[in-house]
Amino acid sequence: MKCVTKTALVSLFMLAGSASMVQAAGAGQGTVTFEGAIIEAACSIAPENVDQTVGLGQVAKSQLEAGGSSQPEPFEIKLVGCDTTTLKSVSTTFTGGVSKDVPGALGIVGTASGAGIVMRDSTGADIVLGTPTAFQAIGDGNNTLLFGAFLKGATAADTVVPGEFTAITNFSLAYQ
Question: In this structure, which topology does domain 44-175 adopt according to CATH?
Answer without folding.
Answer: Immunoglobulin-like (2.60.40)
